[in-house]
């Protein structure tokens, strides 16, 4: 057993972590890996509790002022690049552990994860403690009960128990404004991808869940290998597509909201992928290949710039696929034509089977196909479509093999 009388605990901790990182895991088998994982989770819980306790001490002593910071939260963001949400979580947890001794002991022992501490923290907020005192609630009993739940119950049940307690503290108070519980933060990364974090009230969350789930369940093509999380991401993008296509969103400075891409003509017609050749309206860099995919069914404007950036010519905006052609394609195809997919027409773009940019493919009914967002991407990444004389569509993978979907009506008697 390791000694607890280390003269320099942080140095001992660093040495232990170095030793762990140096261990060869390839020779471990199932039970040993699980045992190691269990020990590491408990150690992480203990470290999170110790971090929260230390940050709370920093708050009480205004330690952040030593480095010119106004708060421990800003110090964590500036010195360790924690997100605003994570820094706030650590600070709230430190305050809660100070007020809830049973929870603090369990967290220090590694029995309660940081996520559970954060879930319980609202009961130790000043207004919640004041309400409990006014009603004669024994917070020590609540501390013990919720700590037991954190140790033994699923996290969702713990959150529900905390919410129930807080609601009972003020059962006759005014109904909270649901909009005050809603937030959405969008972060764009250097590669143009986006991550987001948000919180919704119960009713708003139900609406969001119902909308995403309806599209997730409606779009389950044959041979779909996506995870549920990937299906959810695609569903969210489809929701955005539907909203943008409806034309009912508020205008942005007299212009309907849309996806805008600026790209040099030479890059657009070049058949190579062309990394970072285009820039979207919100500043993301995308490849020329991605821009060509977007240009399949879009509005195009020609802008000629001089060598010093002055505008020389602004060409007329024209629709690549005019409305009457789209209606004809929708009547003919009805759904996404990719093998095994039946996404409805209002989810789909009109794709040029022979690309109009790279191969001078005509914008015509014979050269058009309905494709949902997911399969439109696939076709621009090596999959191939072809319409047969009898009107059926066939789909080939990049390796040349055909995707065949079982159709009982094509089986001869």
Question: What does this 3D model show about the protein?
Answer:
This protein is α+β, with helices and mostly antiparallel strands and 413 residues long. Helix content is 46%, strand content 12%. The protein is built from 15 helices and 14 strands. It has helices at residues 9-21, 30-61, 72-80, 84-99, 101-108, 114-120, 126-134, 139-152, 155-169, 202-218, 228-246, 265-269, 288-295, 323-333, 373-379; strands spanning 183-188, 194-199, 261-263, 278-280, 285-286, 299-300, 303-305, 311-314, 318-319, 348-352, 368-372, 384-387, 393-396, 402-403. It has a three-stranded antiparallel beta sheet. A three-stranded antiparallel beta sheet has the order 12-13-14, with no helix packed on it. The chain has a two-stranded antiparallel sheet with strand order 1-2. A hairpin with a 5-residue loop joins strand 7 (303-305) and strand 8 (311-314). Helix 2 crosses helix 4, helix 6 (114-120) packs parallel to helix 9 and helix 10 (202-218) packs across helix 11 (228-246). The model has no long low-confidence stretch (mean pLDDT 85).
């Amino acid at each position: 057993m390791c000694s607890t009388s280390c003269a320099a605990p942080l140095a001992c901790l660093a040495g232990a972590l170095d030793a762990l990182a140096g261990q060869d895991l390839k020779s471990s088998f199932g039970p040993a890996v699980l045992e190691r994982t269990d020990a590491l989770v408990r150690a992480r819980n203990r470290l999170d509790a110790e971090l929260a306790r230390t940050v709370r001490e920093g708050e009480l002593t205004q330690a952040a002022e030593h480095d010119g910071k106004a708060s421990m939260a800003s110090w964590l963001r500036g010195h360790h690049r924690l997100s605003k949400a994570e820094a706030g979580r650590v600070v709230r947890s430190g305050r809660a552990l100070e007020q809830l001794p049973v929870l603090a002991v369990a967290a220090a022992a590694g029995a309660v994860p940081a996520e559970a501490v954060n879930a319980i923290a609202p009961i130790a907020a000043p207004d919640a403690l004041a309400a409990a005192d006014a009603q004669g609630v024994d917070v020590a009993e609540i501390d013990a009960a919720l700590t037991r739940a954190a140790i033994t119950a699923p996290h969702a049940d713990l959150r529900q128990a905390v919410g129930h307690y807080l609601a009972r503290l003020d059962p006759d108070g005014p109904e909270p404004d649901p909009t005050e519980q809603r937030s959405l933060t969008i972060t764009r990364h250097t590669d143009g991808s986006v991550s987001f974090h948000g919180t919704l009230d119960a009713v708003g969350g139900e609406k969001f869940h119902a909308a995403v789930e309806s599209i997730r369940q409606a779009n389950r093509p044959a041979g779909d290998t996506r995870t549920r999380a990937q299906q959810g991401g695609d569903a969210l993008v489809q929701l955005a597509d539907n909203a943008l296509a409806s034309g009912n969103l508020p205008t942005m400075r007299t212009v309907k909201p849309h996806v805008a891409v600026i790209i040099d003509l030479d890059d657009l017609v070049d058949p190579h992928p062309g990394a970072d050749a285009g820039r979207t309206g919100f500043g993301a860099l995308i490849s020329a290949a991605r821009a060509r995919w977007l240009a399949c069914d879009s509005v195009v404007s020609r802008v000629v710039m001089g060598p010093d950036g002055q505008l020389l010519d602004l060409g007329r905006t024209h629709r690549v696929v005019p409305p009457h052609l789209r209606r004809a394609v929708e009547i003919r195809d009805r759904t996404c034509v990719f093998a095994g997919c039946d996404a409805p027409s209002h989810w789909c773009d009109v794709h040029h089977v022979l690309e109009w940019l790279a191969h001078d493919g005509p914008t015509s009914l014979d050269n058009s196909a309905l494709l949902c967002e997911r399969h439109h991407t696939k076709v621009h990444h090596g999959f191939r479509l072809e319409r047969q004389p009898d009107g059926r569509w066939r789909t080939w993978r990049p390796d040349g093999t055909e995707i065949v979907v079982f159709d009982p009506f094509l089986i001869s008697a």
